[in-house]
């Protein structure tokens, strides 16, 4: 399903509350959805949906107060890591992709910082057998890593970095 954009919202600097007008959030949005104003680069996670016209963000809104603003609520995510997905009909697909790539980059940085991932520019590697741990804790969820493949390209910087394949099992 595509992002939810029906109606307009009022958001106030320093508040977690979002007030909708012409919105129907109870049947269309869930906790964990990502909220942003059209034209903004900043995403906020939905912490609570109170009614069809009121929801709360997981942190304070830190942009300029906006009355009757157009917005996007992203409600499609990958099954394992909960990266935002672009679906047919989504508005502002570039920012959704950018958010997903930022989340992937954070996960890669975490793996490198704790010594689970060591790569060089130009490597095309599979690191499934080189992990020091069989389980990985990311974003409050523990996963068993079955396989993980990355690609890197570039000469003096990482011009391109991505995950070509990751297979995990969520630990119950």
Can you put this structure into words, describing what you see?
With 172 residues, the chain is mostly beta strands. It has two domains: 8-74; 93-170, no CATH class. The chain is 12% helix and 37% strand. The protein is built from one helix and eleven strands; from the N terminus they run βββββββαββββ. The chain has one helix spanning 93-113, and strands spanning 8-11, 17-21, 34-37, 44-51, 54-57, 66-69, 71-74, 124-126, 135-138, 141-153, 160-170. The strands form two sheets. The protein has a seven-stranded antiparallel beta sheet, with no helix packed on it. Strands 8, 9, 10 and 11 form a four-stranded antiparallel beta sheet that branches. It is globular, with a radius of gyration of 18 Å.
List keywords for this structure.
172 residues; 2 domains; seven-stranded antiparallel sheet; four-stranded antiparallel sheet; 1 helix; globular
Question: Quick gist of this model?
Answer:
By secondary structure, the protein is mainly beta. The chain folds into two domains: about 10-75; about 95-170, no CATH class. It is about 10% helix and about 35% strand.
Report mean pLDDT, rounded to a whole number: 77
Largest sheet: 7 strands, antiparallel
Biggest sheet, strands in spatial order? 6-1-2-5-4-3-7
Question: What would the principal axes of the Cα set say about the shape?
Answer: globular
Helix content: 10-25%
Return the domain count.
2
Uncertain residue segments: 121-137, 150-161
């Amino acid at each position: 399903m595509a992002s939810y954009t029906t109606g307009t919202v009022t958001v106030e600097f320093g508040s977690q509350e979002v007030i909708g007008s012409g919105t129907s959030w109870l049947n269309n949005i869930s906790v964990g959805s990502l909220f942003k104003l059209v034209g903004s680069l900043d995403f906020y996670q939905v912490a609570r949906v109170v009614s069809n016209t009121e929801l709360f963000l997981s942190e304070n809104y830190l942009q300029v107060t906006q009355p009757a603003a157009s917005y996007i609520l992203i409600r499609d995510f990958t099954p394992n890591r909960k990266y935002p997905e672009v679906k047919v009909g989504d508005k502002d697909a570039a920012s959704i992709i950018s958010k997903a790539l930022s989340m992937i980059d954070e996960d890669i940085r975490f793996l490198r910082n704790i010594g689970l991932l060591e790569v060089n520019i130009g490597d095309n590697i599979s690191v499934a057998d080189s992990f020091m741990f069989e389980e990985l804790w990311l974003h409050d969820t523990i996963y068993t890593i079955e396989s993980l493949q990355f690609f890197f390209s570039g000469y003096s910087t990482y011009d391109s970095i991505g995950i070509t394949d990751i297979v995990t099992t969520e630990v119950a």
